[in-house]
Design goal:
Layout lengths: L9 E4 L6 H9 L5 E4 L2 H6 L2 E4 L5 H10 L3 H9 L4 E4 L1 H4 L2 E4 L5 E2 L4 E7 L14 E6 L24 E6 L1 E4 L6 E7 L2 E9 L2 E4 L7 H12 L2
Parallel strand pairs: 1-2, 1-3, 3-4, 4-13, 5-7
Antiparallel strand pairs: 5-6, 7-10, 8-9, 11-12, 12-13
């Protein structure tokens, strides 16, 4: 049975994929104690969790189930303890994905993960996956003050972050969108949030000083 007691460390979920060392090094810059683990008790005792990921949605969810981590993450989310999903880790936060089939996600945010369009708004061909630097923007009708109480509080609109992905979230709640990016004119949910559960489609750990400032803000939640 999980103890309802937190310790002062950030736990990075080890799914056997993702650039975990870079995330760990970045968080440790801010005097954070960080552990990398797939032990459910160690995860639950953390005061924050980072869920990274590279690869396929189905394999990642199967790994979470195999390691009995779904219940732990769900309890963490329901208690509104901070979770940061990065790239595939963000996609796992949604209800489902159609990557190579139809698979259920963690369901912490409403929405579905689908393949990026390879056609721009102007009808031109786009390369998929979307790889490289892209700017993040405020959602429609939002002002910069909107970011002041989010993990984007240390950065400015139109800052560039590094992306590597073929899938993205759609059918989401507009209220969950903190920032957008555009690829060929098609919108991408760049940063999402439901309570203290947050997702970044880009890789902050690969995005230089701007990305580090995002991880700094998360570590201070």
């Amino acid at each position: 049975m999980l103890e309802n007691k937190s310790y002062n460390y950030i736990a990075i979920v080890d799914l056997g994929t993702g650039n975990i060392l870079s995330i760990r090094n970045a968080l440790e810059k801010y005097n954070q104690k960080v552990i990398v683990t797939n032990n459910k008790d160690d995860l639950y005792k953390a005061n924050k969790i980072v869920l990274p990921g590279v690869g396929a949605f189905k394999k990642a969810m199967n790994t979470l189930h195999k390691l009995n981590l779904v219940k732990t993450l769900t309890k963490f989310h329901k208690e509104n303890k901070p979770i940061l999903g990065i790239c595939l880790g963000m996609q796992l936060l949604f209800q489902e994905s159609n990557e190579f089939g139809s698979f259920k996600g963690l369901g912490f945010l409403r929405g579905k993960v689908v393949l990026l369009s390879n056609i721009s708004k102007k009808g031109l061909d786009l390369k998929v996956p979307h790889i490289g630097w892209n700017k993040i923007e405020l959602p429609n009708n939002k002002k910069i003050a909107f970011w002041n109480k989010t993990i984007l509080k240390h950065i400015k609109p139109n800052s560039y972050l590094y992306y590597v992905h073929s899938y993205h979230a759609v059918h989401y709640k507009e209220d969950n969108i903190i920032a957008l990016s555009f690829y060929g004119g098609n919108s991408i949910a760049a940063v999402v949030r439901e309570g203290n559960t947050i997702g970044c489609q880009f890789h902050p750990e690969k995005s230089g000083k701007i990305g580090l400032n995002i991880l700094k803000a998360f570590s201070s939640l």
